[in-house]
């Protein structure tokens, strides 16, 4: 450190500084006086070492010395020009190889207990937090999930022409996905909470990818085969959300919960964007079966990455750096494995039933827009296949942006002292009342542009639900978040089954205004229930 000044600012935010030397290994010689030797003897030792300086706060300076020829930890008095002052370097308790510095001005520096690795020369991508690697991989899984789901909403237009399906048949095909999706919600949550989210999510992606590839073959064989394959696809996608919730409850600290969930769920929205944008091009260029073959094959790439990079828990990851592991375990709430699920306790809580019922109210409108929006654009607004796909992209882009904005706002409000309960109620109220208002305007607009605008605003405000009810499972029952999400999403899937099929029936005997009126009514009911009975506090240990 001689000849270099290291900047220290009192009361500054935590920062890390690399050693001044840019070489891979930093070798220096330090002349030290043995503190156990009489000063008059002037006995000196020459010590070669590797050094690392790490500033955890403005007043806490930690120096890690790796001795090359000295394997004892003694008390040394050294001269450093960090502040042109003498510093005491004393033996750290419980953290081998780390030293605690006493500043003349700052007094005794508290020990953070963190163990620092020598990261000099390590590429930035290897220093990227592992918990956010898990989050990004979950994001990409959900991107594929919705790509494979929404491609049918575009492909159904040429398929219905080829196979002469009416609106009721189309509604039946669209709803058949939810038959399988319904079956694996609770089962997927139990499975994830007991055997780990890594295996469950890998199973889900492989299963739904195979079903996606088989869809064109099943359609040509006949309607019953298509319904079975679509239900099989739902089985795979049904375990994704419970598995993801289980993974994030173990990997992500509470303070990062809203942002991480918002990012993962925005993968669903961007998956819809990608599917709706590329499906028309593939259909026009290669025919409608190409959508299912190309999208389904992407699951193999994701699975290869997932199996090599992901772990169900930080405890299972041998490459997780010690300081990140301590950060995760210091700030997370779900640690012990689940052996028995207290169904009686879970089902006896009013906030649990509020979550279940509001999930139903929310998903009725969401799934209608997910599966029927291209048809609405084609039949009502007069867009062709390509235009329907492209204009459907805008609401999902809005959702991706709004979900992350809402996550940032929610975490910021919590950090400023707002109660989690208040934040969840505010976010979900926006997620209910926003879509209700904009859907109510669709019957009054007189141009396609305004209709697309209302759809985009409806979906954008809907995305605030990711920081409302979708974050609430980990709030009220962190150890059973996978099971609880499976339970509430079962109600959400029932909304998809009934809502999608009912929409086909309503359109055959009524109008789009009636479709939107039902969704608006459920949004308003959900708003009342959520604000009366929900909570952001833990109610199940």
From TrEMBL:
Similarity section: Belongs to the major facilitator superfamily. Phosphate:H(+) symporter (TC 2.A.1.9) family. Belongs to the major facilitator superfamily. Sodium/anion cotransporter (TC 2.A.1.14) family.
Q: Which GO terms describe its molecular function?
A: phosphate transmembrane transporter activity
User: Under the cellular component aspect of Gene Ontology, which terms does the record hold?
Assistant: chloroplast; plastid membrane
State whether keyword tRNA processing applies: no
This protein's source sits in the domain of life called: Eukaryota
Q: What is the annotated localization of this protein?
A: Membrane; Plastid, Chloroplast
Give the signal peptide range. Answer: none
Domain Major facilitator superfamily (MFS) profile, first and last residues per copy: 134-538
**Protein name, per record:** Major facilitator superfamily
Q: Has keyword Nucleus?
A: no
Ranges for the region named Disordered are 1-23
Q: Which UniProt keywords apply?
A: Chloroplast, Membrane, Plastid, Transit peptide, Transmembrane, Transmembrane helix
PROSITE patterns xrefs: MFS (PS50850)
This chain's source organism reads: Artemisia annua (Sweet wormwood)
Principal place where this protein is found?
membrane
Q: What membrane topology term does the record carry? A: Multi-pass membrane protein
PANTHER family, sorted = SODIUM-DEPENDENT PHOSPHATE TRANSPORT PROTEIN 1, CHLOROPLASTIC (PTHR11662:SF446), SOLUTE CARRIER FAMILY 17 (PTHR11662)
